[in-house]
Structure formats: C-alpha cells, structure tokens
Amino acid sequence: MNKFEFFGQYGIITKLIVNKNKIYNTNGPNGPSYSAYITYSNCQESSLAILSIDNSIVHNHLLRASYGTTKYCSNFLKGLECMNKDCLYLHYLAEACNILKRVRMNLEKFIKYL
Fold first, then answer.
1. Which residue, among 22, 16, 11, has the nearest Cα to 86 in the 3D structure?
2. FRET pair for 6, CA 20 to 30 Å: which of 18, 34, 47, 97?
3. What is the chain's Cα-based Rg?
C-alpha cells in the first residue's frame, strides 16, 4: 500500500511519505499500522482520494484519510537555500486559494470538498 500504484489511481502523486517512526497498534491482530502523507498534483485529486479511501478496509486495516497541513522550510522562510534534498517542507509560497485558516479548519473539519 505504500506504493504509487495504490494511491496513484486517484491522481498524480507529487510526494509520498510513509512515516515508520510512529507505529500505531503495534500488538494488533493484523500487525502494526503506519501513517502516510500523500501530495497530489491538484485539489480535485486529493478530494477524490480522501472520499474514496476514508473509512475503507485494506488488508484488514481501517484506512483514515483527511486533508493535512504542511509547514514551510525554515531555510525558505529565511531566504536561504535548503541543502536537504529530502526536505519535507514547502519551498514555495502556496496559492491563496489553498490556504485555510485554523478557525475555518476547526469549523469545517468534518466536511470534505470536491
């Protein structure tokens, strides 16, 4: 499931990260669970993936999907070049239409958009 082939059916993946540092349900009957962070090429693909994946069962694991948040690279914010080729943070300004304020996210956290 940590492959482009599984999540790629919903759109073009620009970044896929599986966080194996934080293990969930280590003693579960179906083995441990991990979190994945997936970035699609546009909002429609992200929405389709969330609506398709959330609350589905794959290999006896319940999948949860939601919109995530991201942070800016501290070097980018300082106007410096980031030397970390695997940096997980943004190195460009997000478009205004893609920015949600915390208050709106809290009010609408159960609403999914298409």
1. 16
2. 97
3. 16
